[in-house]
Amino acid sequence: MTTKTTKSVLSLESINSNVIEAEYAVRGEIVQIAQKLAKELEMGATLPFQKLVWCNIGNPQILGQKPVTYFRQVLSLCEYPELLSVPEVEKLFPTDVLSRARQLLEQIPGGVGAYSESAGAFVVRKLVAEAIARRDRHPCNPEEIYMTDGASPAVHYMMDLLIRDGRNDAVMVPIPQYPLYSATLTLYGGKLVPYMLNESCGWSLDVQHLRQQLHTAREQGLCVRGMVVINPGNPTGQCLSLQNQEDILVFCKEESLVLIADEVYQANIYDDKKEFFSFKKVVCDMGLLNEVPLVSLHSISKGFVGECGRRGGYMAVTGFPESVTEQILKLASINLCPNISGQICCALMMNPPQEGEPSFELYEKEKNVILGSLKRRAELLVSALNKLEGVSCNAAEGALYAFPRITLPQKAIDVAKSLGKSPDWLYCRDLLQQYGIVVVPGSGFGQADGTFHFRTTFLPSETDIGLVVDNLTSFHTKFMVQYGGIRNTNGTHHLNGCSDS
Amino acid sequence: MTTKTTKSVLSLESINSNVIEAEYAVRGEIVQIAQKLAKELEMGATLPFQKLVWCNIGNPQILGQKPVTYFRQVLSLCEYPELLSVPEVEKLFPTDVLSRARQLLEQIPGGVGAYSESAGAFVVRKLVAEAIARRDRHPCNPEEIYMTDGASPAVHYMMDLLIRDGRNDAVMVPIPQYPLYSATLTLYGGKLVPYMLNESCGWSLDVQHLRQQLHTAREQGLCVRGMVVINPGNPTGQCLSLQNQEDILVFCKEESLVLIADEVYQANIYDDKKEFFSFKKVVCDMGLLNEVPLVSLHSISKGFVGECGRRGGYMAVTGFPESVTEQILKLASINLCPNISGQICCALMMNPPQEGEPSFELYEKEKNVILGSLKRRAELLVSALNKLEGVSCNAAEGALYAFPRITLPQKAIDVAKSLGKSPDWLYCRDLLQQYGIVVVPGSGFGQADGTFHFRTTFLPSETDIGLVVDNLTSFHTKFMVQYGGIRNTNGTHHLNGCSDS
Fold it and tell me: Per the count of CB atoms within 10 A, which of A206, A301, B9, B316 is most buried?
């Protein structure tokens, strides 16, 4: 009597095609090959290198960056509050660490072992909001703040909210971009409307181009719901000008777009002439706070904090109707709550020790050592890259990455094509196999047609980065020889086509 | 020249309707009212009670349950490894804690501050796999294990994988169910095919009924992809019989269903005649390991561990083709990695101190105190509920909840209807407003038509639970009087309709 319709056998043919189509290059195929090589090395295999150098992802502590002492001391006491009662504790921890831990434990019901409110523990959101208010010199309400496990869940929430079934919904994303945006758009069934950053002009953003891209997309029947800005840029490192930020906000207002501002690199600025301004500050300064729906993302994984493994961050949501923020809260509540240690670390990052407090001096020293070293390493790497044949690289004004353009020999392009791969994939694969250096092909981030890049962090320690530069140089030279050089191909290029900067 | 199509203004009308339709009662409207009342109390308001009693969610540490010392000691050292080098450390921590922390820090590259592999740090997966192998007496490969931030992300991954656009995909879910399943199904655009648990027979599961429901769903054009089993049950607390488990596996094999086994309450069994068997063990015993795609979920939030705020858990995936597990890994990699402290805590939960180790005695004592107390509290609460007019409640064989059936006066049913609410919502709302006790209406979990329930944890401490029982009794009596009692309505009922148990 019962008729069975097709049974579903579990296979690539029977699962959600959005999942299959989603790509996330930062942990993509090159990284999977690297992980296999790492396991071979562990098993005693002989390879052309002794260890892998993980430049594929901003993960500083895996490359030896020391955690900031103050954060870890407070977190350690929050984990095991009994320590606060032993006589030795005064010898082991500074007094401001003890009082900060006591304050947090008093105000977080159940401590690190209990679910908090879904948006995060109230004291944490209050501390974060106060810090944002100090940073921007504009009020910030704790109710604007949603704590998250790193910045990634915030992007999921926004894509889930904005992308509707069968409505051709789309979001504008910079190219090159951090592939979390393309991946989540694909997962939720949305379309990516690209806007190109201008490489020849320091990866700057042209608002006129934004308008063109939006209108083209609309003519094609897409419903453009929002726009992603990454400032400072990832993988490109540029820091937006204030004028750019104002233009973007006017654009979003006029075109009724939600602005998703990825500001996770706000503490990583290396160019003394550049300054980070949050979109929250700019939108307030312009008097547009209630007219532009703005989601600002921050994270403890980047900056000099580098607490990637802890998964902490927040999103600050302004200009949304309450009926919609209630839906964000519901999405958060379906995940119960972000982990409490990550929440605490975020509150500490935003409220570090102040002058006069016992931990202040060490904290400042650790911060300045990390940031100073990152700046030196960025300059060393970019300068070395620019010395290579056919390679040009914009200065990293901010963030943790260099994104050099590489002009590849025609033979390399042909070989890659025959493998069904992009030419920059071939370059990165060979670099990995010959020197153990793990970088990500530019094609994983998007790039102008006919150009090739790779993204590398400058996170290897100052002792290691010289060797990385040397190995990269040796590899590049060999690669160019192996594939016959760049004579008769797309030629060298220069990054000096910028008229107004 | 450019024509603008409709602008999208941000409103309930313009966001993803799946998000709007998703419901998560455990943190739903009753809990939101409770949070407002809690804030009013904080501001000094006079209410009929002095504090809220949060029985809506399994969150033991917010109700005073002490964390297990061993876990917290190891985690505290992993947070701040410098402690391992101070002379006092030997006085502050047992030696097995020190060596466990040292071992984990050596084997987790970058410690708790670095992203791990997306599936989790290898040493953690290895420790978890070894523990599963010991539990089930069957081999377990670390590659089967994906660490997660609590069990919830695993449910997201599976729904995302199984539910395709426009294909009428569906998953079988028990009624009553834990509303994470209905919420994620709605979010990913899937359909819920219910199968009823038999309340009059201790919430048991009837495999013949499963088949009927499946065939009915298929006749309606649904493509049924998988089946959720919660064992021990949530909100129902029942522990499945081995025969039931075997039948379910045969059913999944015959009908090509993925089995999602929510086993997060596996350490919470209170009935001495009942025993927990994992579906992994049963599928191995039956020789069906490679024939039934099985996803088993576990978490550090439940059991006696109760580390909810840390967000740790794992899913063990067997019987899947490699092409599909690669897609799960990609989904995990888009989220970078689960938080490391949660991963470590999960490894510790699965590998507690052993007899002869310095921490063993305290660990066993803490575990037994918590589990013994939970058992007493469960019995006290269920027995008190069964004394109330028109209330009947199955014994809680496992998990953390009682799910009593309440027969409500017709007048209450009418009043609720006039408010556009379910009658059990009215009951829970009044209980909250009059006594500050927060429980969740049965309608949030699903229930047989015409029946009403609520879910309450038995997590208030032994000092508090007596008061909860007294207040619940007073409330219930008053409620029944207020609404005219249950004469002339659906009458009382008895839970003795079970023929074969």
Answer: A301
Task: Using the 3D structure, point to which of B308, B335, B350 is the last residue of a domain.
Answer: B350
- B329/B270 same-domain check: yes
CATH number at residue A441: 3.90.1150.10
Cβ-nearest to A15 among B24, B63, B162: B162
Helix (H), strand (E) at residue A154: helix A152-162
Please answer yes or no on whether A2 and B218 come within 8 Å at the CB atom: yes
Closest approach of B114 to chain A, Cα-based (Å): 4
* Residue (of B304, B308, B319) closest to B366 by Cα position: B304
pLDDT at A344 over 70: yes
Query: Which residues from B are below 8 Å from A190, CB to CB?
Result: none
> Cβ B180–A334 below 8 Å, yes or no?
yes
Helical (H) or strand (E) element with A170: strand A169-175
Mutate to test the interface with A, among B305, B308, B317, B362 (most CBs of A within 10 A): B308
Is residue A384 classed exposed, middle or buried when 0-12, 13-18 and 19+ CB atoms within 10 A define those classes? buried
Rounded-to-integer distance, Cα B176 and Cα B211, Å: 18
Same domain, A401 and A460: yes
Give yes or no: residues A218 and A271 share one domain. Answer: yes
Domain coverage including residue A38: 17-63+370-482
Q: Chain A residue with minimal CA distance to B2?
A: A215
Centre a 10 Å sphere on the Cβ of residue A221 and count the other Cβ atoms it contains: 10
**Shared-domain flag, residues A212 and A311:** yes
- ipTM, interface predicted TM-score of the complex: 0.94
For chains A and B, CB pairs below 8 A equal 285
Q: Which residues on chain B are in Cβ contact (under 8 Å) with A117?
A: 35
| B52 and B193 assigned to the same domain | no
Indicate the residue of B5, B117, B221 with minimum beta-carbon distance to A223.
B5
**pLDDT category, B428, cuts 50, 70, 90?**
very high
Place of tokens 């999921």: A156
**A377 and A333: one domain?**
no
The set of residues, in sequence order, having a beta carbon less than 8 Å from that of B10 and lying 6+ positions away, is: A256, A258, A293, A320, A321, A324
Which contacts of B239-248 are long-range, i.e. CB under 8 A and separated by 24 or more positions? B239/B269, B239/B271, B239/B274, B239/B275, B239/B276, B239/B397, B239/B398, B240/B205, B241/B204, B242/B277, B242/B282, B244/B204, B244/B205, B244/B207, B245/B277, B245/B279, B245/B282, B246/B282, B246/B286, B247/B207, B248/B205, B248/B207, B248/B210, B248/B279
The band of B462, judged by pLDDT with boundaries at 50, 70 and 90, is confident
pLDDT at B315 over 60: yes
Chain B residues close to A323, C-beta within 8 Å: 11-12
Question: Considering its fold, how many domains does chain B have in total?
Answer: 2
Q: Are residues B339 and B387 in the same domain?
A: no
Count Cα neighbours of B356 within 13 Å in the Cβ-side half-sphere. Answer: 0
